[in-house]
Write a structure and sequence with these properties.
The chain is built from 9 helices and 16 strands. By secondary structure, the protein is an alpha/beta fold. The chain folds into 2 domains: 280 residues, 3-Layer(aba) Sandwich (Aminopeptidase); 114 residues, Alpha-Beta Plaits (2-Layer Sandwich), CATH 3.30.70. The radius of gyration is 24 Å and the shape is elongated.
Length: 418
């Protein structure tokens, strides 16, 4: 399955001028929306205020709205003047359980919750694109679906999969999809493109090492689960160095470890939690078995037992080669050659991957960096309590969605591919 459409490129200079003018007219309103969402962050599947704001805005643009898709998701449908294919544009809406420390005048008002991954930007960008594209119905051959998704941060039960189960890719059937994500590694005005795998498979592991408690003075009478867990952690890294092809990329990280009740008692149980990031094909089934083998062997070497729960998370997001090149060419004609940056595969997980499994898709990184001066810190990364995004990226994102949509759904030169 891949993108096979052939389309006439619109007069790029005239279209660029028109869209830029429309964006300039609405950008202040869109930034206000972004700041409202930023001040009122909601965690996954709790995006009640955000989704209602989105739905009301879409309705005010004359776009048909479906609420409650996949829980708190919203879908807008814009029908063009002529029949054709259906393009899906996607944004996620959820925040993170982080206490904001940016000092912004529109910082989060909700203790312990923050838009530290830029989903407030994504939501406002897609609303801006919906508003602009609603003015171009007569130029659209086909339909545009606006997918406002809950719970991207809630692996393994993210909102994209639930929205797919609720039919977001049907009625009308979606033919291809485009998504954006803010990216502090890129400057405002730059867009990151990559064909093939663009984000890693992201799974979760829950590990338990079971020993036997005893007095710290007599370790031979107990089984020390802490010592055993240290062996297990070391053995997991040996998987990477000795069981994985050095040309391939897999990362196993233990991010939480808990064990022991008292300083002079041999610990009988250690619990660990971590992630597996797979960036090369062929390891989805192999890694769980390698972890089980390594864990059982390491624990047994000191007399302990090993248990594992392996939770499949988000698969790799795959950018369709033909569609990616088409969108890249459209953007290049509008924003210029210098706007396009080739990016490496990202080790982070992303549940737009479930969409990319179903239809040809493009996942683009939207430059959003705002430098912060410090002896120790350059750019502030995503998921940081002090991350600040340059709001200049919002207009770039709106234009990217707009140019891509009008280019892909303009009058056809060739018959639609299957």
């Amino acid at each position: 399955m891949s993108y096979t459409g052939g389309y006439k490129v619109l007069d790029s200079k005239q279209l660029d001028k028109e869209i830029s003018g429309k964006i300039n007219e609405i950008i202040d309103d869109i930034i206000k929306i972004r700041r409202t969402i930023h001040q009122n962050p909601e965690l996954g599947y709790e995006e009640y205020q955000t989704s209602e704001l989105v739905a009301r805005k879409l309705e005010s643009y004359g776009i048909k709205v479906a609420r409650g898709v996949g829980g708190t998701g919203v879908v807008g449908l814009l029908a063009g003047a002529k029949p054709g294919k259906t393009l899906l544009l996607r944004a996620d809406m959820d925040a993170l359980p982080i206490q904001e420390e940016t000092g912004l005048p529109f910082a989060s008002k909700v203790p312990g919750k923050m838009h530290a991954c830029g989903h407030d930007i994504h939501t406002s960008v897609l609303l801006g694109a919906a508003r602009v594209l609603s003015l171009y119905r007569d130029r659209i051959y086909g339909n545009i679906k606006f997918m406002f998704q809950p719970a991207e941060e809630c692996s393994p039960t993210g909102g994209a999969k639930k929205m797919i189960e609720d039919g977001v890719l049907e009625n009308p059937k979606v033919d291809f999809a485009v998504a954006l994500h803010v990216w502090p590694d890129l400057q405002v005005g730059q867009l990151g493109f990559k064909t093939g795998p663009v984000s890693a498979r992201s799974d979760r592991i829950f590990l338990r090492v079971l020993g036997k408690s005893g007095h710290a003075s007599a370790p031979h009478q107990g089984v020390d689960a802490i010592v055993a867990s240290a062996q297990v952690i070391s053995s997991l890294q040996t998987i990477i160095s000795r069981r994985i092809n050095p040309r391939d990329s897999v990362v196993i990280t233990i991010g939480r470890i808990q064990g022991g009740e008292r300083y002079n008692v041999i610990c009988d149980k250690v619990e660990m939690e971590g992630t597996v990031r797979i960036m090369s094909p062929g390891y989805d089934d192999k890694i769980p078995e390698l972890i089980r083998q390594a864990g059982e062997g390491a624990a047994a070497s000191v007399g302990a037992r090993f248990e594992m729960d392996y939770i499949n998370g988000y698969p790799m997001t795959i950018n369709d080669e033909a569609l990616t090149k088409k969108v890249e060419d459209l953007i290049k004609k509008s924003l210029g050659e210098g706007a396009i940056k080739e990016i490496p595969l990202d080790a982070g997980g992303e549940d737009f991957s479930f969409v990319s499994q179903k239809v040809p898709s493009v996942y683009i990184k939207l430059g959003s960096s705002l430098p912060v001066s410090s002896e120790d810190v350059g750019f502030i990364p995503l998921h940081n309590s002090r991350v600040i995004f340059d709001e200049g990226c919002i207009s770039v994102g709106i234009k990217t969605f707009g140019i891509a949509a009008l280019g892909l759904l303009s009058e056809q030169e060739e018959k639609h591919g299957e």
